[in-house]
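Q: Fold this one first, please.
A: Sequence and structure below.
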Amino acid sequence: MTKFRVRMARGTAAGWVNVEWTDGPDHLHVMALLSMFESSQHEAPACEGASPWRICAGEAHWVREGIVTSREISQDAREKVQRENVRQADDGTFYGMIDTPKGPRIIPAPSQWTTAESVAARVARDLSFQS
């Protein structure tokens, strides 16, 4: 149900694929799917002439150098995480709480001045959402 934008980089970044999406699955789930497309090889065509920019036949070279992912978290998703996963400790600091198969996981705020909105953005990176 999530829309993805997939683009091949150009110029000096040729060989890299950019994948972008909003909400939907987290990075780990997406990379598990994309890893099968990373670093595939091909055989170069016949070499004609001695140019440093040509690849001689018989040499294997990588088609894709790697995959860059970028996930945007919508405002609605951040607000939902803040309501459901962000708590305030007795000392007034905020922390995130995620239920995992191994039990609750606490995501602490990086400082005592971190807002609930910032903690929600950190927690949202580890969660999957329906778009």
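Q: Good. Now the second chain.
A: Here it is, same layout.
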Amino acid sequence: MPLPTRTIGPFTVSSIGLGCMNLSHAYGTPPSEAEGVALLNHALDLGVTFLDTAALYGGGTNERLVAQVMHRRAEFTLASKCVLDMRDGQRILDGSPDAIATTLDAALGRLGTDHIDLYYLHRLDPNVPIEDSVGALVRAKDAGKIGAIGLSEMSAATIRRAHAVHPIAAMQSEYSPAVRNPEVAVLDTCAELGIGFVAFSPVARGLLAGSVRDDGYDAGDIRRSMPRFVEPQLSRNLALVDRYDAIARDAGITPAQLALAWLLAQAPHIVPIPGTRSIAHLEENVAAAACTLSTDTLAAVDALLPANRLVGARYPAAAQAQIDTELLPDEPLAVTS
């Protein structure tokens, strides 16, 4: 049975997509290529029609992984990203038109295609006017290399500047019951301008999926540097998670399904893209598309996790410096020591 669909710019996609990042990047040792390909194929078999990758993920490894399902190209909308990239083994932030063109051409090569449906500016480069970065993507669109333009982790003011250059199809940012920054201004701006909103980390990097119980993360896991995911902040946040899990039990669904169904209930222009390495978790996530939450359940989540309820900053200081998204009132920030 096909999944429910939603609209992101010119695309009709499954109401729950797949974030491909953690198949290659950011959460410790990635699965084997065979395991990653199996998960991608199973997602498509389940009716997921929106796959999200980026040049940064694994230094291009993730795009090469997604290339392994490009024989099923007609079944999904392909999204990738530029500006954040790897150069000579180092992470870079470069929104210049030349860098964007270079990253895009390399991505097309890795993906084994001549066209990416939706191409995002992964972050705002403060040294390059957003108009110049968007202009580079307009030229790529005119050349047929991309189909639509997206932004990631940017503010409402930046969205408006970008949209004035060329209509923006999608805005991607972190959003979940535990992370409410888009509610400051971005969600309303997207609704006003007809921009789809793509929610990454919709289960709060595993916090709302039962997979974080302590801070004994593997080497290479980005949560090791995120203040709210380590002690002494984590224990306080896990006390909230225990209460959140109880709401899910009362609703007869899993914590991850509660988070995803909550997001779908917020607005019709929101599409969450949970990532996973587990076939079982993938099936669990996709099943959330059929979950309808009662008003009492929605109210219980909002009462437990209002804006800025988690303890600790969302990002370490270096990463926060690359984020243009609005802060919540009194939001804690990591500081350099």
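Q: Anything worth noting on the second one?
A: The CA atoms of residues 207 and 241 lie 7 Å apart.
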